[in-house]
Amino acid sequence: MAATPNSAEARDIAYHLHPVTNARRHQEIGPLIIDRGEGIYVYDSNGKQYIEALAGLWSVGVGFNEKRLVEAATKQMSKLPYYHTFTHKSHGPVIDLAEKLIGMAPVPMSKVFFTNSGSEAIDTALKLIWYRSNALGLPQKKKIIVRNRAYHGITIAAGNLTSLPANHTSFEMIVPDVIRLTAPHHYREAKPGESEEDFATRLAEELDQKIIEAGPDTIAAMFAEPVQGAGGVIVPPATYWEKVQAVLAKYDILLVADEVICGFGRTGTMFGTTTFGIKPDIMVLSKQLSSSYLPASALMINDRVFEPIADESNRVGVLGHGYTASGHPVVTAVALENLKIIEERNLVSNAASMGERMRAALRKLESHPLVGEVRGVGLIAAVELVKDKAAKTGLGKAGELGALVNKHAQENGLISRAMGDSMAFCPPLIITEAEVDEMVSRFATALDLALAELPEGSVK
Ligand code: PMP
């Protein structure tokens, strides 16, 4: 990248601190500037085309130029560009979206609370759970269970529920009482020869043990993604959810399904909760809720959660929590239109069939010297990269092989994400057969180019 003085690249380096970026390295290599989008493609400022294999940040379900969302935003902006939802105020779009979401819920849900990002929704879930424990006269019931490799956001509270080292190291996190479990990652965590079912049994026993150690009466909830996304697209082993839920039920611990990535079709059914038979008390929604055209998030709570909260707010006088943009009219109007598009165009069943095609095509690459495992469900998958298949190891430093393949992918017109040494695939729900094939073919080329760069005989 040649950053001439005053170029957009130079100004980005001069003025912009990027999230989830190596700030020092950014000064050397500068930004990739994306200029426009169309379907599953985005184009950079030089006109180069890329397949967006991660749908932005796992979120642009309807693709990058959906005119109906532009029209929904424009129409609502002209009528009522902003209003709030504090102190009993409401408006048409927020009521319509709340009703729509409760109607879509795969298990009985009672109320929707609106927020603006996944992290805010997770923070809200945590605060409402603590509020509920106090309402029930159980102030000691505050601890939260999460799994290693979880991603639940980055605010002080949500960031603590996240269990990825890069999101913790060097930040002074205020650590509430969090109990961390082994990630349900069969490839990395199962013992040699351990079946998925036996691994799931062992993880459920670990959960039971940790609850007993911490004191069952002190634990309020478990937060979990149906499929762990940013931690590596970790699809839980067979029978995992059934066994985990039996343990939670035994100790009366709430379950929060973080559907921020899985929600609205990603796993081949409307919610990850449906795909895995999960019965949560709270569902956290974002990303494909608005296809990220505007920042939107929400949580649905059931009556077990709502009723004590309503009593407590009555006792205190107000539920003292909410955001200026909670239930923003333009955001909720766009989200509602986005959900209509997902339903009208059968994008959930498209995700299921295109996902099957994508996973089958990726599995054909399992014979490639750099591929250790392909895993996925619906239209979300990961390819675990290794240099030594038996030892399951990458290059010298963790993440180096992922970065190498990712670099070649991007040069070859494919934007994905290396999560350590695994590459994620999570394209827009609108993807077609030909586009799936093209995406996997660009990835295969990137693998070959990466392999050609490694010293001969170093790959086993
Ligand atoms: N939960 C999950 C499962 C996520 O994947 C993310 C974001 N990738 C979040 C929460 C946080 O969302 P946000 O970045 O909007 O705060």
TrEMBL record:
Cofactor(s) the protein requires to work: pyridoxal 5'-phosphate
GO molecular function, one term: adenosylmethionine-8-amino-7-oxononanoate transaminase activity
Matching InterPro entries: Aminotrans_3 (IPR005814), Aminotrans_3_PPA_site (IPR049704), PyrdxlP-dep_Trfase (IPR015424), PyrdxlP-dep_Trfase_major (IPR015421), PyrdxlP-dep_Trfase_small (IPR015422)
The organism's place on the tree of life at top rank: Bacteria
Biological processes annotated in GO: biotin biosynthetic process; gamma-aminobutyric acid metabolic process
Keywords for this protein: Aminotransferase, Pyridoxal phosphate, Transferase
Record carries keyword Transferase: yes
Pfam hit, one: Aminotran_3
NCBIfam families: PRK06105.1, PRK07480.1
UniProt family annotation: Belongs to the class-III pyridoxal-phosphate-dependent aminotransferase family.
Record protein name field: Aspartate aminotransferase family protein
